[in-house]
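Journal club prep — side note

Before the paper discussion, L.F. wants everyone to see what a predicted structure for a comparable chain looks like in token form. Sequence:
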Amino acid sequence: MGFDEWSTGKKVAVILIIVIAIFCVVGAITFAFVANQVTNEITNTNITIGGNNSTTSTISIPQGEYNINIETENSWTSYITTDGRYSQNSGSGSQEIDLGTISNYASITINQQGSGTTHVIVTDKDGKTITEGRTSTDYGSVYMLLRVK
């Protein structure tokens, strides 16, 4: 039985099914493309938020070795998680902390224990500044999230 011999209802139904299938395929491709673009934009976005007594930043970085330089005259405490490894340090005055190799992420919190400001600088293995934060008031905190691209 050829297509010409089909009833009008069958012809319309088959054509309608083909048109709907084409729209579904085009819609799925468009959705996948848009989702990919949105994901790329979110991944490549660096977010910085300032608070009354703290700074927060999220930055995308390449995998590699990194250090934190804490510049202050105050006492401080650091809470650092690098790829699931947790460490807590405390000190007074300026100090450098080796983060080691970051493969996925590093979460950094520096709490200042006094008046004045504390400047926190993240550098790569060559000493190039990647990001920095500063407490804006007494007893402030600096929060950073480093995500590997």
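L.F.'s comment for the group: Helices lie at 8-43. Keep this in mind when we get to the figures.
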